[in-house]
Write a structure and sequence with these properties.
By secondary structure, the protein is α/β, with parallel strands linked by helices. The chain has two domains: about 1-150 and about 290-315, Rossmann fold; about 155-285, Response regulator (Rossmann fold, 3-Layer(aba) Sandwich), CATH 3.40.50.2300. The chain has helices at about 10-20, 60-80, 95-105, 120-130, 155-170, 185-200, 220-230, 245-255, 270-280, 290-305, 330-335; strands at about 1-5, 25, 50-55, 80-85, 110-115, 135-140, 150, 175-180, 205-215, 235-240, 265, 285, 315, 320.
Length: about 350
Amino acid sequence: MNKKVLIPVFLLVAAATVGAGLFLKKGNDATPQAHSSKAQIDSSETAGVGPIAVIPKGTTHSFWNSVLAGAQKAAKEHGVDIFWTGPDREGDREKQIQIVEDFIVKKVAGIVLAPTDAGALVPVVERAAAVKIPVVIIDSDIDTDKRVSFVATDNYAGGAIAARHMAKLLGGKGKVAVIKYMAGSASTTAREKGFIETLKKEFPQIELVEDRYGMDTVETALSAAEDVLTRHKELDGIFACNESTSRGALRALESQGRADVVKMIGFDAADALLKGLEAGRIDALVVQNPHAMGYDGVRSAVAAIKGQSVKARIDTGVELVTKDRLNSPEIRALIGSEG
């Protein structure tokens, strides 16, 4: 079952107060019923801009709630409606392709898409471009130049930051493992490469003993991490590259009683991960700015629809968060954007 939202402009003020969940609807089809709020718009600058579809990789991780909040903010500022529809599971490429196809048929004015797969979503993105629907890619890149902009973290840099901090935690030597996400995801693949390649180039005394796909749920990541920990009793550190793999790795360390022994660096700032960091069971988190992805994604789509120039690449930033930085104003502001 897909989760979907049509957010009229006059409801966005309420959304800022009570949260996006109030407006989530459930249905069997990927395309929501249109609801026009253009009569409520008195801005001539944005008049005539039709609805924009915002399509996340999935709808279960807290990361995407923050993307939605950023998209809502941009929609309110520009006086446009947005549809919010995504697969239940992040690994469901076929469902995401269907959702994009349905919005092309629906003739939305623009699409903001976080593709589940860098290759599988190419045909539908190019189909949208062919019928003059501008597509802004967020979070994870895609293998086509038919997108008008790419709004995301520098994921390779995020992985490199994690590698350097792991080396600091281990004193430059030791054995580590990586819990990867899943093949085809450009964002997490870049993080994994950034971590592994930085270790090889800069820290030759740190040995990568195993890298294992955790796939798209906490449960599959837990299973993968437990297997890695069982196989490598001498493990000194573990890096997990997204929210679900980080939560799974943390649970595996806790279940085996090794959270105080094995150094862990995770990715993203879900509540469970922040609690783990505060409790000392996670040593650091690499944190993105998903709110900015949603905001700049919708803002760029509006500009493209209106024929204005759009930056081809917008870097939304990345930060390493440790326990001693949790209460700093800049980190509190960033973490707050994830809730």
